[in-house]
Specification:
Leucine Aminopeptidase, subunit E, domain 1; about 170 residues; alpha/beta
Length: about 170
């Protein structure tokens, strides 16, 4: 895991099936809000590549992606990353504050699983890109040293260039 004094290597990728398949990270973090059924964004793309396994898990009743719920699941080699960390979110109101409280739990889960490289999708569900990048920039230096950000790569790069931090963008 990184530290506040260590530099984080950041790569950017468009949110596409090809980028997901080629993602050279150990794990993905999926933030799933309750209003998002069917799954969209990175979670939806992972679910599609996993032949609906996440949707079946959500509809099966034992994991509902509610506030505070966490699921760690293997991908079985169907996508580049081998593990998914799925974190449930609460209602859209207060999402920014909720994410501020959730991100330390994400860090703890990644640290305990000894994850050295991870992927996220930006923007976070229910937040604008600028607010999402700001939260990520605070969180990133304490996370794994290699991070991949999925989304609109050019827009994320613009937001990152406006911030200083213990991270460097490598490649596209």
């Amino acid at each position: 895991m990184g530290s506040a004094s260590a530099s984080v290597e950041v790569r950017l990728a468009e949110l596409t099936a090809a980028a997901l398949d080629e993602a050279a990270v150990e794990a993905l973090v999926l933030l799933v809000p309750p209003e998002e059924r069917p799954l969209r964004g990175l979670a939806g793309l992972c679910d599609w590549r996993l032949c609906g396994a996440l949707s079946r898990t959500l509809s099966g009743g034992w994991y509902g992606a509610g506030p505070g719920e966490v699921l760690l699941t293997p991908t079985g080699g169907r996508i580049g990353p081998g593990r998914l960390f799925v974190f449930g979110l609460g209602a859209r109101e207060g999402r920014e504050a909720e994410l501020s409280r959730l991100l330390p739990r994400v860090l703890d889960a990644l640290r305990r699983a000894r994850v050295e490289s991870v992927g996220f999708a930006l923007p976070w569900p229910g937040l604008e890109l600028a607010a999402s990048v700001a939260q990520w920039a605070e969180f990133a230096p304490q996370g794994p040293r290699r991070q991949l950000l999925f989304g609109q790569a050019a827009a994320i790069a613009r937001e990152l260039s406006a911030r200083s931090g213990a991270f460097r963008v490598c490649g596209a």
